[in-house]
Amino acid sequence: MSTTPLYGGIEAGGTKWVCAVADAHGHVVATGVIPTTTPRTTIAAAVRFFRDHRTLAAIGVGSFGPVDLRAGSPTYGHIMATPKPGWAHTDVVSPLRTALHVPVGLDTDVNAAALGEWRRGAGQGLETVAYMTVGTGIGLGTVANGRLLHGLLHPEFGHIRVPHDRSRDVFAGSCPFHGDCLEGLASGEAMRRRWGQRPENLDEPAVWELEAEYLAHAVMNLTYTLSPERIIIGGGVAKRAGLMARIRARAFDLAAGYPAIPALTDRSAMDDYVVGPSLGDHSGITGAIELGVRCLP
Ligand code: ZN
Predict the structure, then answer these.
(1) 194-220 residue pLDDT tens
(2) What residues does each domain of the chain span?
(3) Are strands 129-134 and 147-148 parallel, antiparallel or unpaired?
(4) Distance 133 CA to ligand 1 centre (A)
(5) Which CATH fold topology does 6-109 show?
(6) In the CATH scheme, what is the homologous superfamily, with its name and number, of domain 122-278?
(7) Using one digit for the tens of pLDDT, what is the confidence trace for 9-38?
(8) CA neighbor of 26 nearest in space, from 100, 116, 86
């Protein structure tokens, strides 16, 4: 019998929970997908999946949120107010820890994806990396000097403001809190409401020029606030062919050569600065497993 410790990971999404078991090097030995239904049913199914692997040393969870990550908070490990029916105020950590008798590491889904890309993907070998996901919503995970950035709660970069030229874009924005914040203007949901169709069905160049405009501003805000060595842009909307090239070109113009470092002054270096995820759709589960590895003392 092998004595190599195994780690569990859960990419806990609003429509499915992806579960995996891997060794400390990230080699996956089992995977499973559980539809997200009620908290009780979904968590019980995850427990059953992991019970088949009795040598687990720890489990990591990258969860949709917002999630309470504040150490010492009475509701640590709970999903907070969420529009997902039945899931508000759900404790996702305690039921797993109690049923499986292992430590459980928790972070946001996007922080998990950032950690996965930093550890084993497009951010390998760097100290500080920003991972932005552009899908139904917009989120950000950051590894800063080798650690996930938390602070007050966790970054909510999707809700920053970006310039909104109403003569070019009359759409008021889709964010229920802010209207035309970044997520309200550039998320997949914003695109669907502005144009009346899902992003994958939109082919007009002007649609994607506008999208690149907003995301290029996001790239420059990240550049100037966090000084990441690389910005990784993932999520369903970001898979659009040609979008990354438009974002790079516009960000290069917005930078206007300042500061004078290669990523911002050498057009070809920008190709290495703003990139897609190299783990494809596996960034999140890879990072969730790593959250398990890292939650042990
Ligand atoms: Zn907002």
Answers:
(1) 999 999 999 999 999 999 999 999 999
(2) 6-109, 122-278
(3) unpaired
(4) 15
(5) Nucleotidyltransferase; domain 5 (3.30.420)
(6) ATPase, nucleotide binding domain (3.30.420.40)
(7) 999 999 999 999 999 899 999 999 999 999
(8) 116
